[in-house]
Amino acid sequence: MAARLIAAMLLASAAPALAQTGPAPLATDTTRPFTHANSGITLPERLADLQRTGAREYVAPQLDVLFTYKDAEREELSVYIYRVTSGVPAVWFEQAVRPISDRPAFQRMTDIDLPVAFALPGRSVASGMRAAWTVSDSAVRSTALALVPVGDWLVKFRYSSTTHEAASLVRRLDAMIAGLGWPATAADVPAAARIEDCATPLRIDGASKPAPQEGASMLGDALLASLTGTADRKPVAWCRDRTVKSPVPIYRPAGTDNSYLAALSDSGHAVWVRPGMSGLVAGNRKPSWAVSIVLAGETVNYAARDRLPPPAQLSEILKTKAVSRIATWGKREIKIDPSQMK
After folding, report:
1. 319: which DSSP letter?
2. What does the pLDDT look like over 136-153, one tens digit per residue?
3. 14-20 — which CB contacts under 8 Å span 24+ positions?
4. How many CB atoms are located within 10 Å of the residue 315 CB?
5. 289: which residues sit within 8 A by CB, 6+ positions away?
6. Which of these, 125, 175, 176, lies nearest to 150 by C-alpha position?
7. Does the model's pTM come out above 0.70?
């Protein structure tokens, strides 16, 4: 709970525009299938014996949406579709587990399936991840989670029941996942791989300071940040850093020690810290590090740092003025604060 609060504070401190607001109702006809145009996924009016009862939009235009299925309050299925352009799906599966284990009603859970990789019907690659738990001392008898990547989109299923035991719930969830209309043309994604602890520590050498930065290197950092969703997903293998002090979970590409991803939520919000462009600009051989907040449709960049900033310093950095913003959805615009150009 404390980590989630700190993450929300980090997001809110970045800029007023990033403060998270409540979701808005999304108008849909619950008696007809609904196709999410961005991903091509179709949500039927019913899944098994559950009726779709409503939808909400967290980030427009439908970059983060929620669809709810219910039956007389005994069972509830939540289907989230959201755009994630950082890390790998296994990172966000771990983050999706966190709010489940934090729920007061779910304090006594026994996992029966944590986690299992699975393939969508008709697909050969086991790219999805699933887990289920038996819940004790609660009106809820069992709960389950599944996460399926579709290109840059993640589809998250949260399913709870007051009547079904966990094994039965998993079978029902598998049938519901198969019941969605999955796009046949979706780009291939790698097989799911569990996140392991990093074998080596981050190369942190004290607190960072703002680095001297020319306009060319600032523009270069912005251009690299605009590639979020391609370069950031390679290599496929990522690891979890348990040794560095941080208020939020830290992940990084396996085998690296000079970059990391700070996960701020279970919906793909993150701070991406990586080597910057200053050391590549002619006449400037000193390295720098770029710091960005990665959101569903936008990446926000902050002034370069002279060394890899410790995760505990992120809140301080994100309180400073952003130097550029990159729209990663729709019209790909780069906006650079002219006062930062030198």
Report:
1. T
2. 877 888 999 999 999 889
3. 14/293, 14/300, 14/318, 14/319, 14/322, 15/300, 15/322, 18/293, 18/295, 18/300
4. 16
5. 208, 211, 258, 259, 273, 274, 275, 276, 304, 305, 306, 307, 308, 309
6. 125
7. yes
CA distances from 188 to 116, 125, 233, 252, 287 (A): 19, 8, 13, 23, 35
Structure tokens at 312: 């505990």
| Token pair 């979020």: residue | 228
Pair 153, 38: CB distance under 8 Å: yes
pLDDT in tens, 204-256: 999 999 987 666 666 667 666 666 544 344 557 899 999 999 999 999 999 99
Task: Look at residue 2 and give its three-state secondary structure.
Answer: helix
Helix pair angle (89-102, 2-14), 10° resolution: 120
Under DSSP, is residue 102 helix (H, G, I), strand (E, B) or coil? helix
Helix (H) or strand (E) holding 143: strand 142-150
Residue 139 CA from chain centroid, whole number: 30
**How many residues in total does the chain contain?**
342
Q: How far apart are CA 279 and CA 310, in angstroms?
A: 20
Terminal-to-terminal C-alpha distance of the chain = 42
Q: Cis peptide before 212, with omega less than 30 degrees from 0?
A: no
One CATH from 1.10.3470, 3.40.1000, 3.40.630, 3.40.1130 for 33-179: 3.40.1000
Q: Where are the domains of the chain?
A: 33-179, 196-340
Distance between CA 67 and CA 77 in Å, rounded? 8
The closest of 94, 84, 79 to 157, measured between CA atoms, is 79
Radius of gyration of the chain (CA): 21
